Amino acid sequence: MRASVALLLFPAWIIAQAAFTPPDDLDYRKTYIVSEGTRMVAEVYSLKSAAGKKLPTILMSHGWGGVAANLRPDAVVFARAGYLAVAFDYRGWGASDARLIGRTGEVQEVREVVDPIDQTTDIQNAVHWVHGEPMCDTARIGLWGSSYSGGHVVYVAARDPRIKALVSQVPALDSRLLDRKLGYEESTQRARGEIGYPAPGARVVGSLRGAPIRSKMLYYAPVEDAARAPHCAMLFILAGNEELFDNRDHGVKAHERATGPKKLVTIPKITHYGIYREAREQAQRLAVEWFDQHLK
Question: Is 13 helix (H, G, I), strand (E, B) or coil?
């Protein structure tokens, strides 16, 4: 893994999107998921022709610096393939509310920071939420994640046996090589009330939006969890010219360790962000085929 964990998902230019008008054949709505007392905004997609039916469900989560709006092209594909597709913004990101914390008599919103423990907790609560959705077939739930959330979905599947399949594309699965000394120093200062959380959207890892909470990343390694979900069929989609980290330490290693149904696909000649550009349709097809095989 390279020294800067410059891993992780969306650059700043991909965040902004135009107002969304759903295709005529889809039902689309926004709703709320409550995670640890904080409201997250979710977007729910399904075919109009499937109204009232129980559907296999794909829960989608964005990566570093992204928002649920970035996932709309993929959610539309999944819904048209016959799935209930749900995407959401983590707490403090996009349209979701933020946690409030007190520091030296003040209240601060924790917004647009990258905390893998908080984010995986949000995914776990989103899984709980879909279990209450009338159209969700609770025996057929899958997770989809990309880049940093490609690791998150493995982490969650290892802790929730209700997850039957996942797709992890261009995944970053090991944060342990971040600056440990700095992580401990920041944790001590935060515990003593000497510092708060980073400013919203701060860019301290390349051009990526959102400062890392380093102390939460020091021991965060979903690659170690891949073997702990034999109930979950795992598809890993890698970029052949991955430039942000070494696939051998991430997707390849996770695939080797997975003990349930598994598949590894490397798309040649693309870099990390090619998965959202020239290879997006190919990645979508691979995901639909995998979910069809294991959720239908």
Answer: helix
Q: Is position 3 within any domain? A: no
Q: What's the distance, Cα to Cα, between the start and end of the chain in Å? A: 36
Q: How far apart are CA 169 and CA 124, in angstroms?
A: 19
Mean pLDDT for the stretch of residues 16-36: 88
Q: Can you read off the two tokens belonging to residue 199? A: 């400013």
Q: Say which CATH number the domain at 93 has.
A: 3.40.50.1820
Q: What pLDDT, in 10s, does the model give residues 208-266?
A: 899 999 989 989 999 999 999 999 999 999 999 999 999 999 999 999 999 999 999 99
Rounded distance between C-alpha atoms, residue 98 and residue 190, angstroms: 18
pLDDT for 13 equals: 31
Number of domains in the chain: 1
Residue 112 corresponds to which tokens in the numbers above? 């647009």
If 0-12 CB within 10 Å is exposed, 13-18 middle and 19+ buried, where does residue 203 land?
middle
**One-character DSSP codes across 150-218:** HHHHHHHHTT-TTEEEEEEES-----TTS-HHHHHHHHHHHHTTS--PPPTT---BTTBSSEE-HHHHT
What single-letter DSSP state applies at residue 124?
H
pTM: 0.92
